Amino acid sequence: MFERLEALPADSLLGLIALFREDSNPQKVDLGVGVYRDEAGHTAIMSAIQKASREHMETEDSKTYIGPVGVVGFVEGIKKLVLGEQSSAIQQGHLAAIQTPGGCGALRVGSELIRRLGDELTVWVSDPTWANHVPLIQSAGLPIQSYPYFDASTGMVNFEAMDEQLAKLGPNDVVLLHGCCHNPTGADLSFEHWQRIAERANKQGFIPYVDIAYQGLGDGLEEDVKGVRYLSENIQEMVIATSCSKNFGLYRERTGALMIQTKSATEAAAIQTQIQDVARANYSMSPAYGGHLVDKVLHNDELRREWQDELNAMATRVKSLRAGLLEEINKRDIAKDFSFITQQKGMFTYLGITPEQVSELRRDYSIYMADSSRINVAGLNTQCLGYVADALKKVCG
Ligand code: PLP
Ligand code: TYF
């Protein structure tokens, strides 16, 4: 029976991990998969998470199920982290929320919930968007279309083109927005753009669906969610999928949350049963461990401060790598203008070079990046900036 199904090609991004491992060039540079790395190329466990983990090991006395919502303290903490202590939606009980297996779990449950809203709905994603958005949304049975977003000539958002598309949408449309640190381009919406999106959503009736996987890795924990909070305060309905993979370094523990903002507390209570029902039909309940750790970090002043300091240091390191790379590029008088590198936010930058140039960098210089020319800036280190800039000069002229 199984001969009916053919082997599928490997995920090209995850495939880079093996290619990099097999490369014996001592100067090799891994700018592929988007995980945070320190100067030594290591993805360390954050110190506050390590402390929370030790405490948890000593105090946890049962592994029995914890219920469909997940770790309640985690869910409550994440709501406030994203929407703020003063959030009207939290205070008025207009939020349904559930712990999920990572941001991907949140996107999948969120998409299935949207599918339950009716047969006519379409989800709009930015062009380009994170490759995983497509299978996560499509496998929930929703059609996908894309709106203009990235302007390759400036390395920034072409908001006028995006807004022109949004102006044509209506109540059967859902618009997926990256909360901050756009993956793959690093080109973020400005606060004014978020304000205009809120206005459009109110006028046209589409629902914003925010994916926020990098809070704290751009301009800071509060700054990175200014747009999302504005949206939440100024529109009635939205969906938010959040991930603790990057900002708590919990990748493999699969820790995230889904929040649905509704018009009333009664609706929120009904939607709460719906998202729990979607989760039950998929995986029953989310793994709890990562949620326990985040709950501990967020609700202990000392651990929270330690976590924030470390997260700020990570974001600062990424920013200084951006500045350092641009400085090295500028020293080499490369024909292409790369000044967007320091204007973009978060871990990713689209270099905007051709697929041939991407292959040349891989083949001749052992510099690995996604085929799209997206680089994970955190994969750089102060030692390799000159080498990477030299290679860019060679392939770009
Ligand atoms: N959304 C975006 C844009 C991402 O880049 C990521 C991950 O890395 C996620 C969501 C969710 O990831 P995870 O399922 O590992 O939490
Ligand atoms: O875009 C990235 O590189 C990260 C990590 O299936 C990632 O978001 C990549 C592929 C994948 C899951 C996570």
Automatic annotation (TrEMBL):
<dbReference type="GO" id="GO:0030170">
    <property type="term" value="F:pyridoxal phosphate binding"/>
</dbReference>
<keyword id="KW-0032">Aminotransferase</keyword>
<dbReference type="InterPro" id="IPR015422">
    <property type="entry name" value="PyrdxlP-dep_Trfase_small"/>
</dbReference>
<keyword id="KW-0663">Pyridoxal phosphate</keyword>
<dbReference type="InterPro" id="IPR000796">
    <property type="entry name" value="Asp_trans"/>
</dbReference>
<dbReference type="InterPro" id="IPR015424">
    <property type="entry name" value="PyrdxlP-dep_Trfase"/>
</dbReference>
<keyword id="KW-0808">Transferase</keyword>
<feature type="domain" description="Aminotransferase class I/classII large">
    <location>
        <begin position="27"/>
        <end position="392"/>
    </location>
</feature>
<comment type="similarity">
    <text>Belongs to the class-I pyridoxal-phosphate-dependent aminotransferase family.</text>
</comment>
<dbReference type="GO" id="GO:0042802">
    <property type="term" value="F:identical protein binding"/>
</dbReference>
<dbReference type="InterPro" id="IPR004839">
    <property type="entry name" value="Aminotransferase_I/II_large"/>
</dbReference>
<dbReference type="GO" id="GO:0004838">
    <property type="term" value="F:L-tyrosine-2-oxoglutarate transaminase activity"/>
</dbReference>
<dbReference type="Pfam" id="PF00155">
    <property type="entry name" value="Aminotran_1_2"/>
</dbReference>
<dbReference type="GO" id="GO:0033585">
    <property type="term" value="P:L-phenylalanine biosynthetic process from chorismate via phenylpyruvate"/>
</dbReference>
<dbReference type="GO" id="GO:0005829">
    <property type="term" value="C:cytosol"/>
</dbReference>
<protein>
    <submittedName>
        <fullName>Aspartate aminotransferase</fullName>
    </submittedName>
</protein>
<comment type="subunit">
    <text>Homodimer.</text>
</comment>
<dbReference type="InterPro" id="IPR015421">
    <property type="entry name" value="PyrdxlP-dep_Trfase_major"/>
</dbReference>
<dbReference type="GO" id="GO:0004069">
    <property type="term" value="F:L-aspartate:2-oxoglutarate aminotransferase activity"/>
</dbReference>
